[in-house]
Amino acid sequence: MLLRWKPGLPLALLLLLGLLSPCSPGLSGRPAPAKDVAVLEFSTQRPVHLLSPAFLSVTIDGNLATDPRFLTFLGEHQLHRPR
Questions:
Q1: CB atoms within 10 A of CB 75
Q2: Least C-beta-crowded within 10 Å: which of 5, 21, 26, 79?
């Protein structure tokens, strides 16, 4: 994935908002009114960082880290790449 950083909101926040927007309550299938529109510009012409496709970043919430079901999920062999 190639991303070019532009000043403004942190990139991680923009990506998180993009992922959560389909889950938002009250989300309709029609476009937002003009006063609620934000223009986002992403360019892949000059990358800031190159990420390996094998790289996966996971942030574990403290509540999940103590849940035995979540720990079992992390121990699944299918999550680990063979060496």
A1: 9
A2: 26
Helices (H), 1-83: 11-20, 62-65, 68-74
Amino acid at 67: D
DSSP state of 29: S
Strands (E), the chain: 2-3, 49-50
pTM of the model: 0.20
Domain ranges of the chain: 2-21+37-78
pLDDT tens digits for range 46-74: 777 777 767 766 677 777 767 777 767 66
How far apart CA 70 and CA 38 sit, in angstroms, is 36
Per DSSP, 67 falls in state -
Q: How far apart are alpha carbons 59 and 65 in whole angstroms? A: 10
